[in-house]
């Protein structure tokens, strides 16, 4: 395959098909080098045409809790009592600056993610 920038969905699909063919190429071979370059080209195309939005603060908290195998009760004391944790995770109340600071430390999340706005449920 001739390597070039991917500009169309057809070229994108062709690149994915080719990458699938050579994905397990032995390291150091021309096919392995081609797979590395194709991976970069595909990644750039996907970033431009299929961007993935960052999760909202509550989703980010829930994702990190799952990754760390934490339960709701594990955030008691970090962002308040049992009912406050429930209100936050169920989108009944907004995070405060103090909660953002505590969560950023406890969950090793960027405060930048946690300060983004999100909708409350009624």
From TrEMBL:
**Top-level lineage group:** Bacteria
List, alphabetically, the PROSITE patterns matched: HTH_CROC1
Which stretches make up the HTH cro/C1-type domain?
A: 61-114
State one molecular function term (GO).
core promoter sequence-specific DNA binding
One biological process term from GO is: regulation of DNA-templated transcription
Q: Which Gene3D superfamilies match?
A: lambda repressor-like DNA-binding domains (1.10.260.40)
Q: Which PANTHER family match?
A: ANTITOXIN HIGA
Its protein name is Transcriptional regulator, XRE family
Q: Which organism is it from?
A: Marivirga tractuosa (strain ATCC 23168 / DSM 4126 / NBRC 15989 / NCIMB 1408 / VKM B-1430 / H-43)
Q: Lineage from the top down?
A: Bacteria, Pseudomonadati, Bacteroidota, Cytophagia, Cytophagales
